């Protein structure tokens, strides 16, 4: 992975989110419904350590873990433009699937979504002291998508810190 935007950094693995999805535009087997147990490694940075000496207190990330569980634990993920959307919604209404509609279910887009969620939590809670600068979204041991960016509000805070 790339280097963090500040001297202080840490990472946290969130795992155990079994779900299924499909990439309906894919010409190969990915167009079929298939599933994985997704995991996410988030990389955090801080302008300074907190009173306990942490970049991020991992126990404070329970709301993010809950958001991940709500989205990915035993759910069916579908792209918003899937041509079978009416059928998926009917199956959801019948209790056969727990449908989650996403802009794009791919691992790269999922990594970007989780990055947004993490940074919304951190900015509200820490007021710019911390950020998530990278997310690796993994569908299995071999395949992952990565999103890396430093939020502009964190860059401004990092420039002002000693």
Layout of SSEs?
Layout: E1 8-21, E2 34-46, H1 62-72, E3 75-79, H2 85-93, E4 99-102, H3 107-126, E5 130-138, E6 144-148, H4 152-160
Parallel strand pairs: 1-3, 3-4
Antiparallel strand pairs: 1-2, 2-5, 5-6
Helix pairs in contact: 1-3
Descriptive report:
- The protein has 162 residues and is an alpha/beta fold.
- It has one domain (8-142): 6-pyruvoyl tetrahydropterin synthase/QueD (Tetrahydropterin Synthase, Chain A, 2-Layer Sandwich).
- Helices cover 30% and strands 31% of the residues.
- The chain has four helices and six strands.
- It has a six-stranded mixed sheet, sandwiched between helices.
- Strand 5 (130-138) and strand 6 (144-148) form a beta hairpin.
- Helix 1 (62-72) runs antiparallel to helix 3 (107-126).
- The longest helix has 20 residues, at 107-126.
Counting DSSP E segments of at least 2 residues, the number of strands comes to 6
Report the uncertain regions.
none
Assigned CATH class: Alpha Beta
- Counting H and I runs of at least 4 residues, what is the number of helices? 4
Name the structural class.
alpha/beta
Bin the helical content.
Answer: 25-40%
Q: Tell me the series of helices and strands, N- to C-terminal.
A: EEHEHEHEEH
Strand content: 25-35%
Assigned CATH superfamily: 6-pyruvoyl tetrahydropterin synthase/QueD
CATH topology: Tetrahydropterin Synthase, Chain A
How would you concisely characterize the structure shown here?
With 162 residues, this protein is an alpha/beta fold.
Task: Based on the model shown, name its key terms.
30% helix; 162 residues; alpha/beta; Tetrahydropterin Synthase, Chain A
């Amino acid at each position: 992975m790339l280097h963090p935007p500040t001297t202080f950094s840490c990472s946290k693995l969130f795992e155990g989110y079994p779900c299924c999805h499909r990439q309906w535009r894919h010409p190969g087997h990915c167009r079929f419904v298939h599933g994985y147990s997704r995991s996410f490694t988030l990389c955090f940075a801080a302008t300074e350590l907190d009173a306990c000496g942490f970049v991020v207190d991992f126990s404070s990330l329970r709301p993010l873990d809950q958001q991940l569980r709500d989205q990915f634990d035993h759910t069916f993920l579908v792209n918003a433009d899937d041509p079978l959307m009416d059928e998926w919604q009917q199956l959801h209404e019948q209790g056969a699937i727990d449908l989650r509609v996403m802009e794009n279910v791919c691992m790269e887009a999922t990594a970007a979504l989780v990055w947004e969620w993490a940074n919304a939590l951190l900015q509200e809670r820490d007021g710019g002291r911390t950020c998530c600068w990278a997310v690796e979204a993994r569908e299995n041991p071999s395949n992952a998508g990565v999103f890396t960016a430093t939020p502009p509000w964190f860059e401004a805070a990092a420039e002002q810190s000693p």
